[in-house]
Description:
alpha+beta
Amino acid sequence: MKKYDINNLTQKALGARQFSQAKYSHFEVGAALLAENGTIVTGCNVESSSYGLTVCAERVALTKALSEGITKFTAIAIAAKDGEFCPPCGACRQLLYDYAPDLDIILTNGKENKKYKLNDLLPLAFEDTQLG
Ligand code: THU
């Protein structure tokens, strides 16, 4: 695992949060996904008047990256409410796991960071090996 600057990544997540489209929940989230090649791809949550269409910040960052041909990832930082840590939802854990099971998950509350491994946050994950 390459070394990387956690504070730089959390700052990028905090910066991405400003673009959050959260007019229904008012819960603004930013994410910054670090690729193995050093590229950082950001995302924010994008909500819909048809609530179920809402996309989380983490999935926006991941799909942006994949759609640009960036496919190998080291870490993702997530920022939501100042002073609180925001763990990724179950759907995001699954999609991130499908592409980067060894990913580091960095949560920031704006002041402090917490670091987890995605495979610890999604034990007994469903994965493509099961598809046969
Ligand atoms: N949300 C995220 O963007 N990421 C998370 O990890 C948790 C939830 C968004 C989805 C929705 O726009 C709002 O936060 C409230 O659920």
